[in-house]
Each structure stands twice: as C-alpha cells, then as structure tokens.
Amino acid sequence: MLGLSRAFGASVASGISAFLPYLTPWDFSPTVVLVCAVTAILYIRGLAAVRQRGVHPGFWRPFSFLLGLALIYGVLQTYFDFLSQHMFWIHRLQHLVLHHLAPFLMVIALPGPILRAGIPRRWRGAEKALWHRAGIRQVMALLQNPLMAGFLFVGLIYFWLIPAIHFTAMLDADRYRLMNWSMAVDGVLFWWLMLTPRSAQGSAAVAYGPRVTVLVVTGFLQLFLGFYFVIQKTTLFTVYGVCGRAWAISPLVDQQIGGCITWIPPAMMSLLGVLVVIHHALHDQERSPVKSQSSSTAAAAAAR
Predict the structure, then answer these.
(1) Over the stretch 28-69, which tens digit does the pLDDT of each residue have?
(2) Predicted TM-score of the model (pTM)
(3) I need a labelling partner for 38 at 20 to 30 A (CA). Which of 113, 134, 181, 303 fits?
(4) Contacts of 277-285 spanning 24+ positions with Cβ under 8 A
C-alpha cells in the first residue's frame, strides 16, 4: 500500500511538473501581473471589509469576478499567449476573453462597492480626488456615452482585424501589447456601461432602452464581420504563415474557425447582455411602486 501511495504521489508530481511550463508566462509582463495582483488584493480586502459590516455578497458574485480576472491573466501570461500569436483562431479566442467574457463576468458581479472598500483608508481621499478631476470626468463622460461606447467596442475589433494593421500588430511587441490592453480596457468600460444597474451608475446613469439598442447593433456588426471571414476563399491573415502556425492546419480552416469565434459567441453574449439589461429594468420597475408608496407614507406622516 505504501509503495502504491508513493507511486501515485510520484506520478502526480510528474504530471504537475510537466504541466507547469504551460502556466508560466511566454512573454512576461510586469504590468499585467501588477494590475491583476493589485485588483485581486483590493477585491479580497474589500470582501473581508464588507463582510465585517454584515454585508454578504454570497458565493457567485466573488467567484464570477475572480474568475474573470483569472481569465484575463490566463490568456495574457501563460502558454496560451504563445498559441495566440501562432494561430488565428486562438488569437480570436484570446480577444473573446479579453473583450467579452472576462469583463462580462467581472462587471456582472457588481464589484464597485467591494473594490472601493478594499482601498486603504489613507488612499481613499486621493482616489476620490482623482475621479473628481475635470479632465478625468470629461474623458469618462465621452467614453461612457452609449454611441461612443458602442462605436469603440465594435470599432476596435474591426480596426485590429484590418489585415495590414493586424500583420504589424502581431510582429511588433509594443503594438501587440497595445492591441491586447485596448481590448481589455474597452471591454471593462463597455460592459460596465451596459450591465450595471442605473442605481449604481449615479448621475451618469444611461437609460435601459439605449443600452439594448447598442447591444443589438454591436452584436449584429460582429456577426457580420465573423461571417465575412468564414466565407472568404483567400487567406486574409498571412502573418501566421510568417510566424509559423502552432498546428498544421490549412490557413483557410484557421481563418474560418476564427471567423466562427468572431461571429457566434459575441452575438450570444450580446443577447445575454440584453437579457441582463431587461432584468435590471424589470427589477427597477418593481422597486418604483415600493419607493412611491414609502414617499407617500412619509409625506402623509409629515402632514400630520
């Protein structure tokens, strides 16, 4: 029995050691590691703080936020990043995570209050002052305008997939990082605007109707782009031939799979976003009569 235990332990250790190279960064980025680590620390600190106050977010909201953060780290700082530079369809999967799935999971967890609670007390004044700067507020007002948010969300996808621009971005390290960062940051801003309830957006809250319109239009435009890649009879993204493909599949098949990833999952996520927005709208509608009744009761009591 002892021999079997040792053999099992040795095989597990061997399997872990063989798998570790796939978890190590292909191109180490201190910025990615720092941003992910600081965000995780602030969230965990905030989670402990709000629980001490008697607020319990449950299991799924923290799980969703931390899973989204882990996915961002995973596609940028593991062997996955190497594959994304050598297969078009893996690259499209990477951007699906950075621009859609991970931000969606993080935003739907409504992490704002928890992250703010995680900021050390001595830094909170500086954080508030930063967000109240006129320049910052103007930039955020522009970026969080529904028309601009929708334009940037789809425009960045189209821009980085212009074959000539994509070619240089995949061969130039600085442009490659800029491409990935732009997708991740824009994804967080877009989904925050679309999925956060109006009550949590303050005075800058966007009505639910425009949100649904933006989600439907952006979903359709991504569907069109992915379909365009699928039906092409020529290879548009020749850079993967220059870099060398990770697996020996036809360039057209690689492009078609990438087109399907650009087409189907984003459209489904837009639909899911619409359902979340409708949920928020119905929830707000249910709360309105309660608020009105409370206001009426308070007014009647004051009149007495």
Answers:
(1) 889 999 999 999 999 999 999 999 988 888 899 999 999 999
(2) 0.86
(3) 134
(4) 277/194, 277/195, 277/208, 277/211, 277/212, 277/215, 278/208, 278/212, 280/195, 280/197, 280/198, 280/208, 281/208, 283/197, 284/197, 284/198, 284/199, 284/208
